[in-house]
Design a protein that fits this description.
Layout (H helix, E strand, L loop, with lengths): L2 E11 L4 E2 L2 H11 L7 E11 L4 E6 L8 E4 L5 E4 L16 H10 L13 E2 L4 E5 L5 E5 L12 H17 L4 E4 L4 H10 L6 E7 L4 H13 L2 E6 L2 H4 L2 H9 L14 H8 L5 E3 L22 H12 L13 H16 L7 H25 L4 E3 L5 H6 L12 H10 L19 H24 L11 H8 L1 H7 L13 H13 L5 H17 L10
Protein name: asparagine synthase (glutamine-hydrolyzing)
EC number: 6.3.5.4
Pathway: Amino-acid biosynthesis; L-asparagine biosynthesis; L-asparagine from L-aspartate (L-Gln route): step 1/1
Length: about 550
């Protein structure tokens, strides 16, 4: 008695390879307090209320796939929830965090523990927090990315990856996973080929996309059960309603306007599996956030600026009230620099990977996992404690250009390497047939890529979606209504003429503004949903 445990997400015992439920955590906590942390793996946020010791513990998984939010009440009490919308009615006032808003507009995610509201913060990854009887909040890390020891080699990491995926395959007999034309899903599939009878794969998107074509070819070639979910009029015509309905579930941390296709695919796919294998984190194996060339060196300030430019959407930061575009860039550079300063390393590649792990994964990619947790348990093949600790100690040559993932595919299933990836990219250049296909097809792809770059806009669409066209041609009123300066919760952040000009440029010209505009729209929708009857309306 006196101890209560609640869990959001799906932890499992990484030694016994078995799911852990609240009663399992309760028993282990009673027997050995927090010693059970050594055995925890998976995606989870755990809260333990210990009335005997007059304290509350909050434990967040190492990757922040799941997290909780906290805020202080005027009387000193702390409110904790997995939904910001459930917290704001209890707060006397809420205000927009201007820096967080700038980050979200430009990057598609916030940095660190911020949310769009100044009064609400997130618990951070790999940490255990303690709230004592004086209601003071303190946290300590139980896992960090930089704690690895000894040499790391490609073979060691491949063995660790394969072992981790094999453990995931033991957790269910009915596994669902996305299959695309990219490197991440191909890498995961290569480690599952020996148990592909357990798999059901799916691809969603436009029928003409590379993803759909290549996934179908792989499924037919290797006898893998596979379905294609077209993003049709049943979704496209209802983008506004879907975006609004998803918004509070995502806590203002996801672009719900361009994610309207997610839930339909998850719901349809859930009839084929009870465990979802994600591709989150594959980019850590190829230093996705490392700026190229000379931008990868220099001072921390210069590196932060280079990293900011790498992750920033096409944007127009001259639209704010009382803030110039250069001032906005300085704020964003400062945000990135503040995050980089938290990591106890000077190595530039490792800094970029730390930043990716704690921000892109925990504050962006994880949102899709939280959405699909309504339908599946979740497993992340690229995220495992000991495997991740090898990454900072790998040679740079292995983590550039996808070399390490190519080695995993060739080690596990060389026959998978013979099928080209999207944009006619090649997995195994030593395969003469695959190389010939690559040499024949790649020039046409490159011509389209460089045409887009030279034009400064998307003349050719490589994506499996086309929200740019769908919004411009079918939902102009939705865009204009959401960005109507006079009625926006975010209105005070923007110069009216600047925002109206941005809206016109987006709707009436070809541009690279889709992400920036729909990020603003998604933030506005979230704040408006918080302001529905019975909920407090935040003002900027």
């Amino acid at each position: 008695g006196g101890v209560e445990v609640s869990i959001v997400g799906y932890p499992y015992d990484r030694r016994r390879i078995a799911w852990l439920h609240a009663e399992d955590i309760h028993r282990r906590y009673i027997e050995g307090r927090t010693a059970f942390l050594e055995d925890l793996e998976g995606s989870f946020a755990i809260m333990i209320l210990d009335r005997n010791r007059r304290q509350c513990l909050v434990i967040i998984d190492p990757y922040k796939i799941f997290t909780l939010f906290h805020a202080a009440l005027p009387d000193g009490r702390i409110i904790i929830s997995d939904r910001i919308g459930e917290m704001t009615p209890h707060l006397p006032d809420v205000s927009i965090d201007r820096t967080a808003a700038l980050e979200f507009f430009n990057f598609g995610f916030v940095l660190g523990d911020k949310t769009l509201l100044e009064e609400v913060r997130m618990f951070e990854p790999g940490r255990m927090y303690t709230i004592d009887d004086r209601l003071s909040l303190g946290g300590e890390a139980y896992w960090t990315f930089l704690d690895g020891e000894g040499n790391a080699t490609a073979n060691r990491l491949i063995d660790a990856f394969d072992t981790h995926v094999a453990n995931g395959l033991r957790l269910s007999e009915r596994i669902s996973m996305p299959l695309t034309g990219g490197l991440d899903s191909r890498t995961v599939l290569s480690a599952c080929m020996g148990a592909r009878e357990k798999l059901h794969c799916y691809t969603h998107g436009r029928r003409s996309s590379d993803d759909v074509r290549i996934a179908g070819k792989i499924a037919r070639r290797f006898g893998i059960r596979h379905d294609y979910y077209e993003i049709g009029s049943d979704i496209i015509e209802h983008i506004p309603e879907i975006a609004r309905s998803m918004s509070l579930h995502c806590n203002g941390l996801l672009n719900t306007v361009t994610s309207a296709h997610f839930l339909s695919s998850y719901e349809r796919e859930s009839s084929y599996g009870d465990l979802f294998f994600s591709g989150i984190g594959g980019e850590l194996l190829r230093s996705y956030y490392m700026p190229s060339g000379e931008e990868g060196g220099g001072t921390l300030e210069a590196f932060a600026g280079a990293l900011r430019r790498k992750i920033q959407f096409g944007s127009d930061n001259g639209i704010y009230s009382g803030m110039s575009a250069s001032e906005a860039a300085e704020i964003l550079d400062g945000s990135v620099r503040a995050e980089l300063s938290r990591y106890s390393t000077d190595d530039r590649r490792t800094l970029a990977e730390c930043f990716y792990l704690e921000n892109r994964i925990g504050n962006f990619l994880a949102l899709s996992m939280r959405l699909l947790s309504r339908y599946f348990k979740t497993f992340n093949p690229f995220l495992e404690r000991e495997m991740l600790r090898m990454i900072p100690r790998l040679p740079d040559a292995l983590t550039s250009g996808g070399e390490l993932q190519r080695r995993i595919i060739l080690h596990n299933a060389p026959e998978l390497a013979r099928i080209l990836m999207d944009r006619a990219r090649i997995v195994d250049s030593s395969d003469s047939i695959a190389l010939m296909k690559h040499l024949l097809q790649r020039p046409f792809v490159l011509a389209r890529i460089y045409s887009n770059r030279l034009a400064g806009r998307r003349l050719f669409n490589f994506s499996f979606t086309d929200y740019d066209a769908w919004l411009k041609h079918r939902h102009r009123e939705f865009v204009m209504e959401t960005l109507d300066h006079g009625n926006m919760r975010l209105g005070r952040l923007f110069d009216r003429a600047g925002l109206e000009g941005l809206t016109r440029r987006f709707l009436d010209t070809r541009s690279n503004l889709l992400g920036f505009v729909t990020n603003i729209m998604s933030a506005e929708i979230f704040l408006d949903r918080l302001g529905e009857p019975g909920k407090r309306r935040p003002g900027a």
